Amino acid sequence: MRRVLLNLKIALRSLYSFKLRSVLAVMGVFLGTFSLIVVSNLSASLAEKTETEIKDFGENLLIVRSGIVRSFGPRTRLLSEATNLTLEDASAIRAGSKFVEEISPSMSKTFPVRYGNTVLSSILIVGAAPNFPAVRNFRVKSGSFFSENDDNRLEKVVVLGTKVVEKLFVNQNPIGKYILLRRAPCRVIGIMEEKGSDISGADQDNQIFIPLQTFTRRFLNVDYIDGIYVKVINESAIPLAKEEIESILRNRHKIKPGEDDDFTVIDLKDVLALKTEATDMIVVLGRTSAIIAFFIGGIGILSIMILIVSERKVEIGIRRAVGSRKRDIVYLFLLESSFISFLGGSVGAVLGLIASALIFQLSGLPYNLSPEGIAIAFIASVTVGILAGIYPSQKAIAIQPIDIIRS
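Below the sequence we write its predicted structure tokens.
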């Protein structure tokens, strides 16, 4: 231990003699460690957030949408609309597929909403079936969700998202009060729990739920719907259920072989895969920048160690003359190069963790520290130091004491 401390003291003295180069060498390793830890933590957090969104959206869920929907990156886009998806289609799916546990048809459209003197110009109104909370994993915070009887009797009752409540009812209990949807009074019977954004980025707390038949008949006067949520019996049956649903709807809509569907069946696992691809791209770019930074840091350490060897020839010659072994010289310079790298890695790790915490705080992402990323960053920093010290240490042991004495 005394020898280690002595060598560290000598290393610090040598590095202090070359302040600028030492700082540059440390900075390379610092940036590599910093970027690697931040990217690892960020990717782990994004993966956790995506998995949470999938679970919150609904377990073992398929979404049937009218028209053609395509996914671009982590989001989906509606490319064309259709008006031939009906409640009868939903019933046919329920009856015709052995892999389907439950279905929940829906219809949505933006309406102006008013309470007293407060007007919200564009709120998403969701016409939903009574089993919507069970299928979509929603929960009622207070009051109740509408019933089958409310839907059959075309009752004008609504359940509000939490953000709608905050905007319309300041310090008031909305249960039992009436709001105007397109000038039609509707009684508030419940408030949903806070849900946050869904996997498509839509704010699920900024919407209003109304019985599906009430919405389609009394507000929109249409006989079609725009979506069906399909709960499959288990995860492994999702691909089979998707094939059956597509077959059932193609037969019902009389779509001939070779013709495009007028509907889209969305598997949330496909959306998850797209999000994972986007996250993987961030990881690749981050790790590439970390590798470049470590490489630059290694070059910096190598250059400063070569300079240190050149400046300390007399010291090395005297050490060899008084009995130091070659392994002692090698150990000395490997320790110095490793110390430089470890110093940069330690500072990078601390600041990387702080930066990760700030990003999580500001972005609302879940806190998720990647032990694997931290371990890889430390191993990489130490490895860079050792590799960068091999050549200078070999150059140092090549110095002959007799040559130093003669000079």
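The first strand starts at residue 61 and ends at 66.
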